[in-house]
Amino acid sequence: MPRWKPDARQRLVVAALNLFAEQGYDDTTVAQIAERAGLTRSTFHRHFADKREILTAGQKTLSRLLVEGIADAPDDTPPVAAVAAGLERASGEMTSFNRELGPMLHAAIEANAELQERNALKSIGMAAAMVEALRLRDVPEPTAQVAAELGVLAFKLGFAQWVDPARDESPGELAPLVLAALEELRTAAVELR
Prior knowledge:
Radius of gyration: 18 Å
Mean pLDDT: 90
Structural class: mainly alpha
Order of helices and strands: HHHHHHHHH
Number of helices: 9
């Protein structure tokens, strides 16, 4: 086997999620993950600090894409529409690899309190990134916070629908599901009056 393969990061993620499903998160070691992926522990540590990081591996990229989409929206775009632009940019980068791993990722998180906390922190980080991007557009803090929280919830709802194996229809692209969820949440917010 060659010393290094370009898909090492993905192989480590798949190996980890399979092991988490088979034997639980707590009983899975970094050495087992590396071995299952056909790699060494040092290769694992080149990609991840620890096994917890596997579950939040795409957080920085996701936040960056959200911010880029918000920043690229025309200047006169209302806050929720700017968030929609961010969601569309980030969702557009999700691949079938993300969709296939979604159920395993969800199962691993649901089975471990520490991972649930880490997942909550991921949501907070996404919201904070969007709030900052909106503030750079001179959106007032309360408005930016509400728009960002709606964006996080829309992403979660759309992603859950996209990866649901029980869904009858073809999953298609993620972006339309996330944008539809955002619109539903926007309508629900108006009805709160």
